[in-house]
Amino acid sequence: MLYINLSHESKQLKQWFSLIFYLTFLLSNMFFVIFPRQFVDLN
After folding, report:
1. What is the spatial distance between Cα 43 and Cα 41, in angstroms, rounded to a whole number?
2. Sign of dihedral through CA atoms 36, 37, 38, 43?
3. pTM value?
4. Of 2, 12, 16, 17, which has the fewest beta carbons less than 10 angstroms from its beta carbon?
5. Each residue of 9-18: pLDDT tens digit?
């Protein structure tokens, strides 16, 4: 019973990690797209 519960928890953790990784990936892409434009505008 405990083992099944643990495996379920690890599945949820993997989903959370993949979701967080995906979100950070999107945010970094947005940052690298937006930031250089502002930098160029400043120059």
Report:
1. 5
2. positive
3. 0.52
4. 2
5. 788 889 999 9
